[in-house]
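Hi support team,

I'm opening this ticket because the web form for multi-chain structure prediction keeps timing out on my end. I have pasted the exact lines I submitted so you can reproduce it. The total is 796 residues across two entries, so I didn't expect it to be a heavy job. Is there a limit I'm missing, or should I split the entries? Thanks in advance, R.K.
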Amino acid sequence: MKLKGFMDQAYEGKVRGEKRLDEKKGEFLLGFEDLAQRLKERPKRAEVEDLAPRDADSIVDLVISASPKDKREETIWGILSSLAAESISEPLFIPPRNFAGLELKRGTIILDGEAPASGPKARASGGAGQTSAPWTRAHHLGEKMSGGRLVVRGGAGDYLGQEMEGGGIVCISCGDYAFRNMTGGWGVVKGDAGNYLGVGNSGGRIAVKGRAGARAGWLMRSGRIWVRKDAGDYLGLMMSEGSISVVGRAGARAGWRMKGGLIKADGYGPEAGAEKVGGRIFRRGAL
Amino acid sequence: MVAGYSEEGLFEIWERSRSNWHRPQLPRPIIDGSKDGESFPFKNYRIVVDSKTLEKGDQYLENLFDHLIVHYLFCPRSLDAAGRLALAAREGLSNGDQNQARRMVNIFSDIVVETFRLERSEEDEEKVLLGWRDLAKQNLSPLDEAVVGFLAYLWGVDLPSSDIPESEMLLSVFRWGVRDKTKWPRQCMQMARILESLEPGILGRGTVPSVEGLGGNAHSAPLSGLASDLEPDSYREILSVLGLDGDLLRWYRDQSYSIVIRPTSRVKESWYPSSLVKWRFTDPPSELEVAYSLSLAPRLIPGVTTYKREQECCGMVAGGERVPDLLVVLDSSGSMDGHRRGTKTHAATLAAFKASQFAHAQGAEVAAISFSDRMAVQEWTRDLVAVEDVLVQHLGSRTHIPGEEVLKLAKSRPGCLILCITDTHIQNLYNEWDSIQEAAALGRFVLFCIDEANKNRQVDEALGDLGAVYRINRLEDLLSLVVETAEEAYRGREPHQGRLNGESFISSE
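Hello R.K., no limit was hit. The queue was backed up. Here is the completed structure from your submission:
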């Protein structure tokens, strides 16, 4: 008797010859919460990458369907959004959410504030079927980017492009601490920027087409900041290198305690260059 | 008894169900209120059928028995597996509600069991669908509708379903199949997340199958794996989800079950045949039990119908002339950090639990003192629970060793073993020194000093003169050393030759 015959005899022909239900094969992942559950408290990009689906459609689906609840989940989602943008050839359209484009290396993310259409292709191309949603100012957008593009079709929140190493960000406006500790890449703000723009920068280029708030270029060590309209008080505070160019007027105490670098503006408020140790402050008309 | 329904008829259906599932060793069901239930002393896995169920007919009964048998055989199968599902369900629920978590465990295990049965054979499929079609006729809540709709999608059958998005979401959880047990906790957690917001109804009511199966004895079933993995509060909550009471005592007790002490002072060793296991090609041909194998099947198919006898070793241990009683002196001051996993208190209490249980099993009387600047004392007793009650006391505050109390207990049992576990931040040693010295002289004093890095050198040196002192750098070593000391003390009255005479084997299983 063959083994199959023996087993049939044992089960008295009760067992099916073929499987009744199809089982999905491949990576076992049950959604965003399941992924987040399996990661430790402060997950790194490599750890998220290990557990994330390999195929582009699945990862885009995961990004679209996720609803992160706390900061930890938001950072995981941010890394996933970058992985999704890197895995597809066309731009990734997603609604603005904190940490979008976190550690982005390549590809393009467009935050357009509109709910995506169904199906990953439609989501990726931003095609028809979209419905309007109220714009939310998301924070930490494009943080630690080292490549790629992030386009924000609305106002960004605080910490835009923080610790950026490369790539580029375009947004309509931004909150405080934009491009803080930037070491490379570029950022364009089409409207106004908040306070503390480019704090501690050691590289990169920032262009603001509107106004910049107080303390832009504070502790700057390298890089460039260009502001088309006016800048707030304490412009270039304690900066040691790099250049700041303001087409409009700078506020009070521009270049206070500066050690090096260059500040150019159309005019200055009181006490410009007070307690200055080094560096140069120019009035644009005087050049 | 239902009119026209005999016990023989019930047993016939029961035997048919058992034969469907390769005759699991389960007791016969009883009809609610019958005398048979009172005569049989064990309630474990006993199915009680009420008159309402009997009225539903043979096919319904067979379906019910099959369902319960697969719960017993496959999912959740054990109380530990049910606990892990409960943990997953609770984590999946945003509110952590215990009743809802229990409902999720029940629904999950029902889905697994029914899908497993449906996949097995056409005959089983018919029985499974019969039950669900019967359920679908009733007034269903949104949660019930979501599950029924999901099963219709998953099984590809005609079940009344409504367009609830949760049904499709559940499909993405179960499309990986239900056979892989390692996936269950994650599947259960995700299922709980999806179904959380829906209003419950018929499905998932009642107790968890494993608890129901144990018939009132679930409170004493050990859950070593869960206890080792969870903090006391989480452990208590998970047991509540299962409908059981869990306290600190049980948390320590369950962890201690996984620690096995195997005494090694054997006088004689012998091997004897025990259970039958599969004989495979890699085994010596001489071990093949031809006669037995042929009695089970007409043909010998290696690895399938071939059996051999397992051999077990029996170690003959010499009985001790006298068993020393055990006094456990446990530091529960603030510096020991309290009852959490990984703290000094945790390691010390677990070690004390195991030592007490071992001494108790050897026939010794046990006494315990838990001390800080106050103390809790259990005098010499054979009541292990009373001792454990004292050992789980965490008094906090400063470290004042109760020398006089130790001496009093040691005086009443000369020759006793005194295990003192402390981090040696003792502040009253000078005052209590004489009493401790006298107590140490009356018995065998063994000191375990935790926190080697922050030790008080003077205290340490002074205590070192009293007897054996173990200085512990890593908390994991404490348990092994305490257990080893206890094992050595109760080995019997053979001449002590240290470790050369044989290591004690301590394993955590």
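A quick check on our side: Chain A touches chain B through 18 residues (CB under 8 Å). Let us know if the file doesn't open in your viewer.
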